[in-house]
Design a protein that fits this description.
Elements (H helix, E strand, L loop, with lengths): L5 H5 L2 H65 L1
Length: 78
């Protein structure tokens, strides 16, 4: 019994077709992964922008409350 040469098996048309099929599938998955990564990056950017805006609004509201309380305390003392 002779064993087939590994190099011959790898160069066979069947092995080449399987390699091409797997390469094609891998390329497609990589493209999908890249697109998903871009979407996540964009979503993260939008979320950071919204959080920054909410923090600014909250800061303004808290500052306005402090000013209102100070005015009421000063007005009540006078």
């Amino acid at each position: 019994m002779s064993h087939p040469n590994t190099q011959d098996i790898l160069q066979s048309p069947r092995a080449q077709k399987e390699f091409e099929r797997l390469s094609s599938a891998l390329n497609e998955r990589n493209q999908q992964l890249h697109a998903t990564e871009q979407q996540l990056t964009q979503s993260e950017q939008h979320l950071k922008t919204k959080v920054r805006g909410y923090r600014q609004v909250l800061g303004i509201v808290v500052l306005a409350l402090f000013v209102l309380i100070a005015i009421l305390v000063m007005g009540g003392a006078a």
